[in-house]
Prior knowledge:
The complex is a heterodimer of chains A (269) and B (293).
Chain A: H1 5-29, H2 36-43, H3 46-79, H4 86-91, H5 94-97, H6 100-110, H7 116-123, H8 132-156, H9 161-168, H10 173-201, H11 205-211, H12 221-230, H13 234-268
Helix pairs in contact in A: 2-13, 3-8, 3-10, 6-11, 8-10, 8-11, 9-10, 10-13, 12-13
Chain B: H1 7-15, H2 24-53, H3 57-62, H4 67-100, H5 106-118, H6 121-132, H7 137-144, H8 153-163, H9 166-179, H10 182-189, H11 194-223, H12 226-232, H13 242-251, H14 255-292
Amino acid sequence: MIPGRGVALATTMTIVAIVVVVPLSALVLSLHGITPAGFIATAFSPGALAAYRLSFGAAILASAIDVVAGGAIAFVLVRYPSRWMRPFDALVDVPFALPPAVTGITLAELYGQHGWVGSWLGAHGIQIAYTPAGVLLALTFVGLPFVVRTVQPVIATLPREYAQAAASLGAQPFTIFRRITLPLVAPSFLTGFALSLARTLGEYGSVIFIAGNMPGKTEVIPLIVITRLEQYDFAGAAAVALVSLFVSFVMLYAINVLQRRMVDVRSAA
Amino acid sequence: MTAINLEPLVTSVRTRPNTARLHLWERAAIAGVALLLAFFVFLPLCSIAYEALRAGLPLAAATFADPYAQSAIVLSAITAVFTIAFNGAFGVLAGWTLTKYTFPGKALLLAVIDLPLTISPVVAGLALLLVFGTRSPIGAWFEAHGMQVAFAPPGIILATIFVTFPYVARETIALLSETGRELEEAALGLGATLWQTFTRVTFPRARWAILNGVLLCNARALGEFGAVSVISGNIRGLTDTVPLHIDVLYNSYNLVGAFTLAGALALVTITLTFIRSTIDAGMHRRANAETRS
């Protein structure tokens, strides 16, 4: 028994209450003057619905792309370490290290009409900036490190025995990958997906510059919140914020449950 | 010592496959990943440098002579200092409380501490605005006592504290839960006071994890945009942080200024992140060495 439990616990909980619980309660309390019908009208207005679709759709798709690309990056970085790959390994941290606003203006310029990539794509009839594809691109960029850095240590500590046993029984490399390696790392893919999703769902700074913010087309949820705030529509802003918070919590909780089940199945097998 | 040391040979075989014996598809995979990272991540970095310097170094350097840019840098630095002090102290306290004591609801408390990571920065800013805005009783009380929180530096600091709240706590909790309670209990049993136990036993073990959390918190605090832009009111020279000023410059088509400031900020946050991953790698190596011995 270590003494001081009461004081330590009380201080910790007071700080958590002031910093986290009070502001989030204020979010809920700000709805007090609004009727249920009014809440539904403002939280599910056509503009808000379009924003939910874009934000959630792009975040899910971006995280899925990151699982595939990030999984491949993690595999190569772990399995083929060399002096030449070390700078590339370091590059993985960059999207995480870059401040959102810096990411935002950089991608907007690079993929914009006059940018290195944007002008080339434009010549081929593809536009990324100021379209939903721009939102997807920014979110994929931001989410990538979360997948790679989650999957990497799991691949690095993968037990080799199963793969060796399978190989000794005559399994081909691809069969070993599909039947043994992939099931072992799948739970970490799901964790990476969830982390990427948690970050990209509410992403603002890195998205708004490249999105172009056309109402109903490329407006993300945080932008709806800000637009309503600028019109002093506090209840409307809070309503959209609460709906998006609720949906993201449900999604992340579902992933958590799914992942626990996967790990259970693996340890039972 | 005439025996030939085979250790380097063995480890090199184990960790580094002979490149000459790689399959074609393995080489293709390596090249593909390298190209992907170069195009997707390195190219944007190059474009920051290009956009900042395309009109020449003197023009880029002139960005820092602008008093608005200077006041933004000062405000960002002040915000980071307050944020680190608060979240650092809380993180150490939370690390101690959550790993050294048993109490009901620990998982819930952990989840609440982590909440800011899953909440959109803009929503965080909105929540703080609802608490500290002039329309709320708390905000009105502060204003009556001569202190404005929203649309003023205190609000910016609060928003940054909220967004970076879990970082130090997470790192500290992760490390301290690995090491258990035996050392602290031994120290206390031998007559050390609680404070001595913390400063001589717990803190030295956790200091690298704490530093890691602080570096991450610092990088995030300097770059925070969404929450701060809601609560700052964007008053030039007064409530503009560096990311907000980048936004102002970019929207007024001062691309050289925007990308110069962006490049400088990115240089700082990337450096902080790399110091952190270096420390992280060192900690892992030491942890592995400890479990092996």
